[in-house]
Design brief:
Strands 20-21-24-27-28-29-34-35 form an eight-stranded parallel barrel. It has a seven-stranded mixed barrel with strand order 2-3-8-7-4-9-10. Strands 13, 14, 17, 18 and 19 form a five-stranded antiparallel beta sheet that branches. The protein is built from 24 helices and 43 strands. Helix 11 packs parallel to helix 12 and helix 18 packs parallel to helix 22. Strand 28, helix 14 and strand 29 form a beta-alpha-beta unit. With 901 residues, it is of the alpha+beta class. Keywords: Signal. Belongs to the glycosyl hydrolase 13 family. InterPro entries: GH (IPR017853), Glyco_hydro_13_N (IPR004193), Glyco_hydro_b (IPR013780), Ig-like_fold (IPR013783), Ig_E-set (IPR014756), Pullul_strch (IPR011839), Pullul_strch_C (IPR024561), Pullulanase_N2 (IPR040671). This is Pullulanase-type alpha-1,6-glucosidase.
């Protein structure tokens, strides 16, 4: 906190201890279990099945009557169940059954508890609540004869919010500087004591009883010093009181490998690279027009021989490198944002180069279809320099492995230089953020939040275990202080690092209210006050609906349907699956789609069905793509391929509505991203094996065009315009540089044929992939690679300059965009024809030239758009238009855009 120095004082609850009489042994322990007792599993203190949701109410999933129920608490944590009895010294809080159960307001706040019984804290014991939360807590139910029926631990997130959040959410946490003097503050309401370990010495901290925040004001000499907090707290995960030495969850700087926090003022001029204060950003592109390149920092430059800082933040300052030259070309064409995969402090990469391992074999020697490369890479994967980074350790410090020196503040300076480099190349910067889980929880070595307020920051299941539906230890942004951490962290990235946008990993695991609070906080940032125009910061994320919070089970989620109309976009998988075919987890990766030859150029996979089945599925895919091209609008009406007038929301997508957006910009289109196979690899599995490299190039452009030419924002994985491959790896998060590195020079290939991908996530697909990896038709040359990029850039330029692709409202889309041949005898399987204002766009995914006659346009003049007529693709230049009949003639495997006049 900022402000005047405070007198250091460690407070305890010893006075409360003296004021509360101990339980008699008979009140703690029943003499013996009776026949009416619950099963032995009901006497399990390692679980936490009771939930203390506010200072007066405990919710508990129990049935049947009991003579009494109590909360028993012990500061020293010595309560145990022995021979069916509760043993140990404890004190009690009496509970009474709440007439009518949970209130309507409580059920609304905790919908997943609506079937639970409710118990009210006895008014005589309410003065004991705060003290009870600083030790072990056990909920018990007993029969009339004193037999212990149930004993379990207690979840306390709700009562902690009820007691402390009003004051705590207003507190400034972490290191706060005023006139060079730091104040360090930590929220730890359940801690029995907290002190500061600074340079190896202990400094007392003072507890604010209203907020539960412990703080200490320091001298100027503390600036740049290493520190940790020493927190004494009850830890349910190990069933004992522990003393944790833990870094600051609000850290702004760290030592190498995150061993210590460093007290750093991010406004210190020494941390500002030259020109930082005067940084001129490219003109802000509204989200609905955003063209985004998704990029991993290490992938970008680690194998770029022209980069002076391979694998580092500073590679984005190497203006003469092949990678930066390519990014500038994309920016010149109309790409507006680079989306960086996670760049906060990552828990799974050794930050010092000396501590990392590298493959100890010649990866270039084995055959393209060998399993030797993946075996060698896998041996060192756990300790190499590579990970996608979805393993957050500290949310608000740049990752050290990308810095020239991971110890101290070089990472701060160099992250800022990276932002400068991208902005100077005409690109704004989006940061991928992962607040939905932590790399560890409980007492694990890399646990932070859960060592400070155990059981609060992580989302707990009904038995008190940590939910892991995200892959790792889920967080709980529905709890006030986790929600505050999300908002505070993002404001710091926006203000102190001038990040221009944020992409939320698994955003559907956040409450909608939390994401809207982020939007509100960013909108409040101004150039005059903060050096940032927060209203121009873009937000989008993964609005997937799954896990313990699915279908709004615990709160209104930030999912696709719920975020419609908020101005915060969600990824739309509808168009992705339709254009590629099948889904990311198909047993047979040969399931085809619109841009991979379904029906029009069938492969040998039996999974595609009969020709009739293929045709029917292809037409359904075309309807999905039509909805996607509108920006996934729910209310948009059109004639589907069956000739029926439907809304976008009435088109089925695996049981969900294809259209869910309220306005253009609600849905983000993409054909590939870091997850699942790259687009090139997906098409490698799906296109017929004898498809030539030149034809594969054309299908790559066509697939990317379905996203690029849709209403609303679109994203492409960096390198997809260069036919980027990961040698068929469907989950390359830990596959090292060998499978992930970008190749900006076409002479280095596109990454295909680097061996079979790692077995852990790909072995079941090896029989499908092995024959492909040696195929000459899947080894593109420079003409294919460079031609793909040039044709893609023509389309990006066209999309960025034609206002018709940037319609602002659903009404404008309805009136100006149509599919004139849909549902008629003239609709061709494998072809989508879209009329958009004064443009006509024809997506011809078939292996043959196609004529598309729109009778209503007869005698209206059209010509191939100048960007294509004078562009890089010689094939599309052969497109033609016959005015006398209104017929557009488009070559095979092409997307052609015609302009009226």
């Amino acid at each position: 906190m900022t402000g005047s120095p405070r007198r250091a004082l460690v407070t305890t609850a010893l006075a409360l201890l003296a004021a509360v009489a101990p339980l008699t042994p008979s009140a703690i322990a029943a003499p013996q279990a009776s026949a009416a007792a619950d099963a032995p599993a009901a006497l399990d203190l390692s679980t936490s099945r009771a939930q203390w949701i506010d200072k007066n109410t405990v919710a508990w999933d129990v049935q049947g009557a009991a003579a009494s129920q109590e909360l028993v608490y012990a500061r020293d944590g010595q309560l145990t169940v022995k021979d069916g009895e509760l043993a140990g010294e404890g004190r009690r809080i009496r509970l009474a059954p709440a007439e009518g159960g949970l209130t309507d307001a409580q059920r609304e706040k905790y919908p997943h508890l609506k079937g639970y019984a409710a118990f009210t804290v006895d008014p005589r014991d309410r003065d004991r609540v705060r003290h009870a939360l600083t030790g072990q807590l056990v909920a018990t139910r007993s029969s009339a004869d004193g037999t212990l029926l149930t004993a379990t631990g207690v979840q306390t997130q709700g009562v902690l919010d009820d007691l402390y959040s009003a004051a705590a959410t207003k507190a400034a946490l972490g290191p706060q500087f005023r006139d060079g003097r730091p104040t360090l503050a930590l929220w730890a309401p359940t801690a029995q004591s907290v002190s500061l370990e600074l340079d190896g010495k202990r400094v007392a901290m003072r507890r604010d009883d209203a907020s539960g925040v412990w703080s200490v004001a320091g001298a100027r000499s503390w600036s740049g010093k290493q520190y940790r907090y020493v927190v004494k707290v009850w830890a349910p995960s190990v069933q004992k009181v522990v003393t944790n030495k833990v870094t600051d969850p609000y850290s702004t700087a760290l030592t190498a490998d995150s061993r210590r926090s460093i007290a750093v003022d991010l406004d210190d001029p020494k941390l500002a690279p030259k020109g930082w204060e005067q940084l001129k950003k490219p003109k802000a592109t509204p989200l609905r027009d955003a063209q985004i390149q998704e990029l991993h920092i290490r992938d970008f430059s680690v194998e770029d021989r022209t980069a002076k800082h391979p694998g580092q933040y500073l590679a984005f300052t190497d203006t003469a490198s092949d990678g930066m030259k390519h990014l500038r070309k994309l920016a010149d064409a109309g790409t507006s944002y680079v989306h960086l995969l996670p760049a906060f402090d990552i828990g799974t990469i050794p930050e010092r180069a000396a501590d990392r391992s590298t493959p100890d074999c010649d990866l270039t020697a084995p055959a393209p279809d060998s399993d030797e490369q993946q075996a060698c890479v896998t041996k060192t994967a756990a300790k190499d320099a590579y990970n996608w980074g979805y393993d957050p350790l500290h949310y608000t410090v740049p990752e050290g492995s990308y810095a020239s020196d991971p110890a101290g503040t070089r990472r701060t300076v160099e992250f800022r230089q990276m932002v400068q480099g991208l902005n100077g190349s005409g690109l704004r910067t989006v940061m991928d953020v992962v607040y939905n889980h932590t790399v560890a929880s409980g007492q694990a070595d890399k646990s932070v939040l859960d060592k400070i307020v155990p059981g609060y920051y992580q989302r707990l299941l009904p038995d008190g275990t940590v939910a892991t539906s995200t892959c790792c230890a889920n967080t709980a942004p529905e709890n006030a202080m986790m929600g505050k951490l999300v908002v505070d962290s993002l404001v710091t990235w926006a203000k102190e690092y001038k990040v221009d946008g944020f992409r939320f990993d698994l955003m559907g695991h956040h409450p909608k209210a939390n994401i809207l609070a982020v939007r509100k906080a960013l909108d409040a940032l101004t150039l005059e006050k903060d050096g940032v125009d927060g209203k121009k910061i873009v937000l989008y994320g993964e609005g997937w609906n799954f896990g313990e919070i699915a279908d709004d089970a615990r709160f209104v989620q930030a999912t696709q349907k719920n975020m419609a109309g908020t101005g915060i976009a969600t990824f739309s998988d509808r168009g992705r699956d339709a254009v590629r075919g099948g889904g990311p987890f198909d047993e047979d990766p040969g399931v085809q789609g619109f841009a991979s030859g379904l029906f029009t150029d069938p492969n040998a996979s039996k999974a595609n069905g009969t020709p009739a089945e293929q045709k029917a599925r292809l037409l359904r895919y075309q309807d999905l793509l039509k909805v996607a091209l509108t920006g996934n609008l729910a209310a948009y009406t059109f004639t589907d391929s069956a000739g029926k007038r439907v809304k976008g929301s009435e088109v089925d997508y695996n049981g969900a509505p294809a259209g869910y957006a309220a306005a253009p910009g609600d849905a983000l289109s993409y054909a590939d991203a870091h997850d699942n196979e790259s687009l090139y690899d997906a098409l490698a599995f799906k296109l017929p094996a004898d498809t030539t490299a030149a034809e594969r190039s054309r299908m790559q452009v066509l697939a990317m065009a379905t996203a690029t030419l849709a209403q609303g924002p679109s994203l492409s994985q960096a390198g997809s315009d260069l036919l980027r491959s990961k040698s068929l790896d469907r989950n390359s998060y830990d596959s090292g540089d060998w499978f992930n590195a970008l190749h900006w020079n076409c002479r280095d290939g596109n990454g295909f044929g680097r061996g079979l991908p790692p077995a852990a996530d790909n072995k079941d697909k090896w029989p499908y992939g092995k024959p492909l990896l040696t195929s000459a038709s899947l080894t593109p040359g420079c003409a294919d690679i460079n031609g793909t990029s040039a044709a893609y850039q023509d389309l990006v330029k066209l999309r960025a300059t034609e206002p018709a692709f940037s319609l602002g409202t659903a009404g404008q889309v309805q009136s100006r965009l149509s599919f004139p041949l849909s549902g008629t005898a003239a609709e061709t399987p494998g072809v989508i024809t879209m009329e958009l204002g004064n443009l006509v766009v024809v997506f011809n995914a078939t292996p043959d030239a196609q004529k598309q006659r729109i009778a209503a346009l007869k005698d209206t003049a059209y010509r191939l758009h100048p960007f294509q007529e004078q562009g890089a693709d010689p094939v599309v230049k052969s497109s033609s238009y016959e005015r006398s009949s209104g017929t557009f003639d488009v070559p095979a495997r092409s997307v052609a855009v015609f302009e009226r006049g």
